[in-house]
Write a structure and sequence with these properties.
By secondary structure, the chain is mostly helical. It is built from 2 helices and no strands. The longest helix has 36 residues, at 52-87.
Length: 88
């Protein structure tokens, strides 16, 4: 590895915009998963369908875990690049 960050060619404004975009996307996916799980539980309760209760935890695990796994590394690299530039 050459030790360079792939975000080194972006300006600070672009990096901040990308960081904010990933944060918003992460929140949106998490909120959508929580809402989907709530809807599944409510519909399962109203229709007396116990199979739906098995799906709610899957939506929560995927909806909360996936954004952190997918965007966590990207956000960390962007934050490191911003920190390196503020030190210089």
């Amino acid at each position: 590895m050459n030790g360079t960050n792939e975000y080194s060619e972006y300006s600070k404004e672009e990096l901040n915009a990308k960081l904010n975009k990933f944060k918003r996307l992460q929140k949106a996916i998490t909120i959508a998963a929580i809402l989907a799980a709530v809807v599944i539980v409510v519909v399962s309760y109203l229709r007396n369908a116990p199979q739906g209760y098995k799906m709610a935890p899957i939506f929560l695990i995927v909806g909360i875990g996936y954004p952190y796994l997918a965007f966590g590394g990207v956000k960390t690299k962007i934050q490191l690049e911003l920190e390196n530039r503020s030190k210089s």
